[in-house]
Design brief:
This protein is mostly helical. The chain has one domain. The protein is 86% helix and 0% strand. The chain contains 3 helices and no strands.
Protein backbone atom coordinates (compact mmCIF):
# COMPACT_ATOMS: atom_id res chain seq x y z
CA UNK A 1 0.00 0.00 0.00
CA UNK A 2 1.39 3.39 -0.97
CA UNK A 3 1.00 6.55 0.99
CA UNK A 4 0.70 10.14 -0.15
CA UNK A 5 4.15 10.95 1.26
CA UNK A 6 5.85 8.50 -1.12
CA UNK A 7 3.93 9.75 -4.15
CA UNK A 8 4.65 13.46 -3.62
CA UNK A 9 8.45 13.40 -4.13
CA UNK A 10 8.03 11.57 -7.43
CA UNK A 11 5.46 14.11 -8.56
CA UNK A 12 7.66 16.96 -7.32
CA UNK A 13 10.63 15.64 -9.28
CA UNK A 14 8.45 15.37 -12.37
CA UNK A 15 7.14 18.91 -11.88
CA UNK A 16 10.66 20.29 -11.40
CA UNK A 17 11.91 18.56 -14.55
CA UNK A 18 8.91 19.83 -16.52
CA UNK A 19 9.50 23.35 -15.18
CA UNK A 20 13.17 23.21 -16.18
CA UNK A 21 12.26 22.12 -19.70
CA UNK A 22 9.57 24.78 -20.11
CA UNK A 23 11.72 27.60 -18.69
CA UNK A 24 14.65 26.60 -20.89
CA UNK A 25 12.46 26.41 -23.98
CA UNK A 26 10.86 29.79 -23.32
CA UNK A 27 14.30 31.30 -22.78
CA UNK A 28 15.42 30.05 -26.18
CA UNK A 29 12.28 31.38 -27.84
CA UNK A 30 12.67 34.79 -26.23
CA UNK A 31 16.25 34.87 -27.52
CA UNK A 32 14.73 35.25 -30.98
CA UNK A 33 12.95 38.43 -29.84
CA UNK A 34 16.22 39.82 -28.50
CA UNK A 35 17.88 39.32 -31.88
CA UNK A 36 14.96 40.21 -34.19
CA UNK A 37 12.89 42.52 -31.96
CA UNK A 38 11.68 45.41 -34.08
CA UNK A 39 12.22 48.08 -31.41
CA UNK A 40 14.58 48.66 -28.51
CA UNK A 41 11.83 48.33 -25.86
CA UNK A 42 10.96 44.90 -27.30
CA UNK A 43 14.56 43.83 -26.86
CA UNK A 44 14.67 45.22 -23.31
CA UNK A 45 11.53 43.30 -22.31
CA UNK A 46 12.94 40.15 -23.91
CA UNK A 47 16.22 40.50 -22.00
CA UNK A 48 14.28 41.03 -18.78
CA UNK A 49 12.28 37.88 -19.53
CA UNK A 50 15.49 35.94 -20.09
CA UNK A 51 16.80 37.20 -16.74
CA UNK A 52 13.61 36.12 -15.01
CA UNK A 53 13.76 32.69 -16.63
CA UNK A 54 17.39 32.23 -15.62
CA UNK A 55 16.39 32.98 -12.01
CA UNK A 56 13.58 30.41 -12.29
CA UNK A 57 15.97 27.85 -13.76
CA UNK A 58 18.44 28.42 -10.91
CA UNK A 59 15.73 27.95 -8.29
CA UNK A 60 14.39 24.82 -9.97
CA UNK A 61 17.91 23.44 -10.23
CA UNK A 62 18.41 24.16 -6.52
CA UNK A 63 15.24 22.21 -5.77
CA UNK A 64 16.31 19.34 -8.00
CA UNK A 65 19.81 19.03 -6.54
CA UNK A 66 19.15 20.13 -2.98
CA UNK A 67 21.89 22.76 -3.08
CA UNK A 68 20.94 26.05 -1.45
CA UNK A 69 23.78 27.92 -3.14
CA UNK A 70 21.73 28.21 -6.31
CA UNK A 71 18.97 30.02 -4.42
CA UNK A 72 21.52 32.63 -3.36
CA UNK A 73 22.75 32.88 -6.94
CA UNK A 74 19.19 33.35 -8.16
CA UNK A 75 18.59 36.16 -5.65
CA UNK A 76 21.71 37.98 -6.82
CA UNK A 77 20.68 37.50 -10.46
CA UNK A 78 17.22 38.87 -9.69
CA UNK A 79 18.66 41.99 -8.07
CA UNK A 80 21.09 42.58 -10.95
CA UNK A 81 18.30 42.01 -13.48
CA UNK A 82 16.02 44.49 -11.74
CA UNK A 83 18.70 47.19 -11.56
CA UNK A 84 19.72 46.69 -15.19
CA UNK A 85 16.10 46.84 -16.36
CA UNK A 86 15.58 50.12 -14.50
CA UNK A 87 18.79 51.53 -15.99
CA UNK A 88 17.90 50.55 -19.56
CA UNK A 89 14.31 51.80 -19.19
CA UNK A 90 15.60 55.12 -17.93
CA UNK A 91 18.06 55.32 -20.82
CA UNK A 92 15.33 54.56 -23.36
CA UNK A 93 12.89 57.12 -21.93
CA UNK A 94 15.26 59.93 -20.96
CA UNK A 95 18.41 59.26 -22.96
CA UNK A 96 20.55 59.47 -19.81
CA UNK A 97 21.05 57.11 -16.90
CA UNK A 98 22.77 59.40 -14.40
CA UNK A 99 21.70 63.01 -14.15
Amino acid sequence: MTTVATEVPGFLDLAIQFGLIVASGVTLLVGYRVIQGPTTPDRVVALDTIGTNVVAIAVLFALATGRGLFVTVSLVLAIIGFISTIAVARYVTEGDIIE
